[in-house]
Specification:
The protein has a 4-stranded antiparallel β-sheet with strand order 5-6-13-9, with no helix packed on it. Strands 8-11-10 form a 3-stranded antiparallel β-sheet, with no helix packed on it. Helix content is about 0%, strand content about 25%. It contains no helices and 13 strands.
């Protein structure tokens, strides 16, 4: 698609030849990383245009394994007299870029009509690497979950604050509190929300 920008050079001569000008353009990322051939940009001005140049890789996850839909162990929504029981959900992912330290945020959005397990707006989340050593995973195939990681590799309640939005119950914002944790690019991780 095309975007048009109008500039007002004021009283000056406008853009000068052979001079670089920075532009900042706010864009909304696509839901998935576009193919390299479709992620090309061109800038045109005064009947001249640049050569196509590469766009940016999205800071997304690859090899995401969605959990199978479990059979519910909770009470039906129609019977409000029975306390709701929450189903733990586990999925795997591999980040496209390395993200380090306290303040990094993992956001999870549940599908419509679902809610993320929480008690008074707080959930619990565990993150752990699927493999002991960093390294590229197996192409586009997500790994199976791992249930026997060394305790030192598992991020728990003391290292992650997991808040669930009060309005819909569908958005979990997990903020990492530890300076020593990171999600390494290309390494598969397992996330369990409970």
């Amino acid at each position: 698609s095309n975007v048009y920008i109008r500039t007002d050079p004021g009283i000056g001569p406008g853009f000068l030849a052979e001079t670089r000008y920075p532009f900042r353009i706010k864009v909304f990322n696509p839901r998935v990383q576009p193919a390299s051939s479709a992620n090309r940009w061109v800038v045109g001005y005064a009947d001249e245009s640049s050569r196509p140049f590469n766009g940016f890789s999205l800071w997304t996850f690859k090899r995401v394994m969605s959990p199978p839909l479990p059979a519910s162990i909770g009470a039906s929504l129609g019977d409000s007299s029975i306390e709701k029981l929450w189903n733990p959900v586990t999925f795997t992912l591999a980040p496209h870029n390395t993200i380090r330290g306290a303040g990094m945020v993992i956001r999870v959005t549940a599908p419509p009509l679902w809610q993320i397990a929480n008690s008074e707006g707080k959930s619990r989340i565990m993150v752990q690497p699927v493999s002991e050593a960093p390294g590229e995973g197996a192409g586009d195939i997500p790994p199976d979950p791992k249930w026997d990681a060394r305790p030192s590799l598992i991020w728990g309640d003391e290292e992650i604050d997991a808040a669930v939005d009060a309005e819909t119950g569908r958005l979990l914002t997990a903020t990492v509190l530890s300076d020593t944790r990171e999600l390494t690019a290309g390494r598969d991780y397992q996330v369990t929300i409970f």
